[in-house]
Amino acid sequence: MSSPATTAPETARPPETRRPPRIPLWANPRLGLVVLLVALVVLFTALRPAFLDTTLTLVPLQSDISVYAVVGLAQLAVLSLGHMNMAVGSMASMSAFAMGLAYDRLGVPLPVGLVIGLAAGALLGALAGLIISRTGVNSFVVTLAMDFALVGLITILYTRFTDGVAFSGQPAGMTTLRNDTFADYCMGEVCGPRIPLIAPIALVAALAVGLLFRYGRLGREILMTGANEKAAELSGIPTKRRVLQAHALSGLLAGLAGFLLAANNGAFSASIGDQFLLPSFLGPVLGGTLLAGGAVSVLGTVLGATLTQVIYKGLNLLQFQLDELKLYIGLVLLVALSLDRIRHVIGERRGARA
Amino acid sequence: MIKRPFVRAAGMAALVVTLALAGCTKKSDDTTAGPATRTPGQVKIALVPGGAHPYFQPWKEAGATAKTQLGLGDVTYNETSDWDQTKQNDVLKSLAAQGYNAFGVFGVSPENINATFDDLKRQGFPVASLGSCPAGDADKADFCLSTDVEQAAYKAAQAAIQAMGGSGNLVHLTGNKVDSNTQRRIAGVQKAVDETGGKVKLLQTVTDVDKDLQSAQKAVADLLAAKGTQIQAIVNTAYNPAVASADGVKQAKLPIKVIAIDDDQTILAGIRDGSVAGTVLQNPVGQASVGSYALMKLAGGCTMTTPGVVVDSGSFVVTKADVDTYDADRQAKTEELRKAFDSQYLTCK
Fold first, then answer.
1. ipTM over 0.85
2. Do the chains contact at A48 and B98, CB–CB below 8 Å?
3. pTM surpassing 0.95?
């Protein structure tokens, strides 16, 4: 819209002056999540001191958070485009199948099987991305169809390659990964903290995705494609390829989540990924990732996944019945999201006035 | 410029990992707490089914009875696992954090449940696998007290074959296909069909119809519409399809013999009015009450003679002839199980 005469001086100016007024610190959704998280931990601990029991509560909690943070990241990878991946669960399941097959039949060591599984996940994601970018069909429809197909395929594959529903063979180190914390490893007298061994894997994934979207050219271009595909295309970004890559990343992360869950639960089975879909959206959305695309928050996703798991664990400790548990998780999340939104809106208004 | 943070981060990470791994030794595995001896009053048992299902409802009452009869500290029943192994692991750990120290568990996923049992055993808690055994040959729980599902399915199929007069077409309705128990049930029915030497044909095995009653009803309606006239008998090895097929056959007025499972009121009424030829009963009450008893003994210092032993909690074919007296059989079986634990399975000092 603007004429060249007006755009020229603007581009010459330092970019800081063109930014909208900053949202004050207290209105930052991530900070809100942290405050809420601390409040909930204090509340649950006051009601049930067992909440701070290391071996029975805190260590399993960290394992669960690790899995669901990565599940959230898998969805975040395509939310960056404004797309959805309805097949996160079945992609995780297919990856877990590939890993299980590699360990059981080929007897490969742990890292090799992991790479095979991640490659399987990335390929499935890339396939979804390819269909979406080539046909222009909505990502929701494509991945939903893919999910249906994969759920069937998984059942067929498991009945053909296993005697039931899970691989009995497991690589060396799998049990260690599940049971041990860093406290089991000592350097002289100094032992590590009580953090399960799978937590750093999730942490590395989160850091890598964060760095990719913040500093990586690929990540920035994916975000630009998500913000405005036409504009990105006109700026010379190969948008079709970026769509494919974002979906491949989503598949890869789904595969990683499948691996982490298999490590946690102790088997590569067909049920992996069954419960991934809803949490995959919860983490990113709670953390401030836009469903419309163009903006992501990795830290927020991790915090969102943490919040959900803390709520779940807390209510569990308070021995809520199944129906109540679901009701209260829904309510707590609704309140958390509304508070977050209110704070955000007030913050923006104040910011605009400043 | 753009790639540098990656390189820097990766370098830092590699450095940290190398430093951490250098000179790091694993502490000897001394976390396994020796099982503490507890008096019945100190034993707090948690009965944890895989999720909400009518089959487990008798556990609640049997648990409460065991609490008063045995003078236990507490017996709780928690069905919040919601058919998700991850959630069930969470539920179990939460219960342990609250002081429950003996567990009777119906594992959501028979393939993964050994890992869960291992976790609980490492904390020194006695664990019983109730209602379902882990898949494969190993059982990491102290014992498994469950219906031998293959045997029960075999009995049910035999009853169906008998009801249909020894020849014709049979249909098998069952639960989740990707569940090793379902695979065992399919094997049990197949075995009974094979024994007829070709006189009975297994027309179809319909899986995944035990999610809820609606989906079971739909599946039965579709089945009867498509093949109703060719079928002589339906054998059910899951609860929801049993209720649905008893109803469906009655409404369609087809001469199909239905063998159901469990003793829901609808099914018992069906047996009385003749629309259901028979039903195969399991023994959930026995699982919960004998399971609680054995857990108490284990907490009190007894050990299993054979750790991980599999005990059949019994299955009974009930027809119109014994529909009013079957509970006596079941109670007798339960009492027999308790005695077997005392004399055979448990070693007490």
1. no
2. yes
3. no
